[in-house]
Amino acid sequence: MTADPTPPPESGATPARGTDRAPDVRFSFANERTFLAWNRTSLAMVTAGLAITQLLPPFKVPGGRRMIGLPLIAMGTLVAIVSFFQWQRNERAMRKGEPLPTSVLPALVAAVVALSAVIALVLVVAEGGANK
């Protein structure tokens, strides 16, 4: 009789790489909470973009509101989709005892928010100069 090389989950040891085992439920729940947080971020970006394009007073620059809001709506949509696949990849890695894959979401969200902020700043400064 040979001993099972993978330790039981309650021992605290990680399973051998490549072994398909159910991860500790705490890590699965943490992964799910992260997924849900990304979806809240997605919803906030879509809502902010929609509010900007529909409720913000128009700029003198044609399409100014859309230049700020559309990147946020597009990024919110992308975050909702990509976060699901990131959740799946994390679950798969945990089941196989592999390191969690890196995510491009934080960098993408930061870049799009920064881009929208720069566009808004330029439009507001241009608007101030036009009123004089």
Describe this structure in words.
With 132 residues, the chain is an all-alpha fold. The protein has one domain. The chain contains three helices and no strands. The longest helix is centred in the middle third of the chain and has 33 residues. The radius of gyration is 22 Å and the shape is elongated. The N and C termini lie far apart (89 Å).
| Approximate strand percentage | under 5%
Mean pLDDT, all residues: 88
Q: What does the radius of gyration come to?
A: 22 Å
Number of strands: 0
Q: Secondary-structure element sequence? A: HHH
Write the layout of secondary structure elements.
Elements: H1 25-55, H2 64-96, H3 105-130
Helix pairs in contact: 1-2, 2-3
Descriptive key words:
single chain, 132 residues, mainly alpha, 0% strand, elongated
Task: Provide a quick synopsis of the model.
The protein has 132 residues and is mainly α.
